[in-house]
Description:
- This protein is of the alpha/beta class.
- It folds into two domains: 2-28 and 76-118 and 165-238, TPP-binding domain (Rossmann fold, 3-Layer(aba) Sandwich); 30-74 and 119-158, SIR2/SIRT2 'Small Domain' (2-Layer Sandwich), CATH 3.30.1600.10.
- 36% of the residues lie in helices and 16% in strands.
- The protein has ten helices and eight strands.
- It has helices at residues 2-11, 39-42, 45-48, 51-56, 58-73, 79-90, 105-108, 167-179, 197-204, 231-239; strands spanning 15-19, 95-99, 115-116, 119-126, 154-158, 182-186, 208-212, 225-227.
- The strands form two sheets. The chain has a six-stranded parallel beta sheet, with helices on both faces. It has a two-stranded antiparallel ribbon with strand order 4-5.
- α6 runs parallel beside α10 (231-239) and α8 (167-179) runs parallel beside α9 (197-204).
- The model has no long low-confidence stretch (mean pLDDT 96).
- It binds 2'-O-acetyl adenosine-5-diphosphoribose.
- 2'-O-acetyl adenosine-5-diphosphoribose (OAD) binds next to loops.
Amino acid sequence: MLETVRGWIGEARHIAVLTGAGMSAESGVPTFRDAQTGLWSQFNPQDLATEAAFRAHPQRVWDWYAHRREMIAAVQPNAGHVSLASFAQRHPGRLTLITQNVDGLHQLAGQSDALALHGNIAEDQWLDSPRSCCSKETIEAGRPPHCPVCGNLRRPAVVWFGESLPAAALETAEHAACHCDLMLVIGTSGEVYPAAGLAFTAHQSGARVVVINPEPTPLDVVADLCLRASAAVFLPSLLA
Length: 240
Ligand code: OAD
């Protein structure tokens, strides 16, 4: 199977890669939906990953993200991130990396052009549209930090449930899914749309789809091959 996929990679003019939390699992970042270790097996996303939750309990939500931000700041890209970045550097313009991950590990590995569909946990932004008093220079520290004049809060720059994805990144990702010859779907449960829909788009547009995940997923139905493998172990040999 490894040789088959290697052959497809060699033939493909354009490769789209869609990654999810499993991509970073071997860096030590917990996934969301794995039964024992996933964040959503311990916490209710409605309490932590919605605008309504933040407005109701800003300190609780801020603290949860601050804790994750600190944990993520202490980890490193794994061999899977590194091999994707190295492939992209060796083949300029042939690979579009689309990620649902907010950990910035693809970027840290060298793929600064990764399309971060769900934002970046290291950054924050204003909760409400900034007024003239909302200046970066005068932000008052706090949990969350805020504008000392009008009280506008800073919030993590991640996409919460019910929010739109960054339009430009999504458009570029959809274009890549429509025009690629091969899509590698790595470490995602395929439960969250519109990201998961990109695998269907690629399949319907005639691309081969390869799923790399130790567990079955709902995206397997569009896969030409499913590789039950971990990202950090498999990708280096696949992309060498
Ligand atoms: P999930 O936690 O839903 O799925 C992680 C997937 O990774 C599962 O299918 C695992 O089987 C697989 N996996 C675990 N370890 C792996 C490894 N070492 N190598 C390869 N695969 C492995 O994470 P996502 O699909 O990314 O949204 O979740 C999508 C979105 O839901 C996230 O972006 C997040 C969450 O709510 C936001 O933060 C907006």
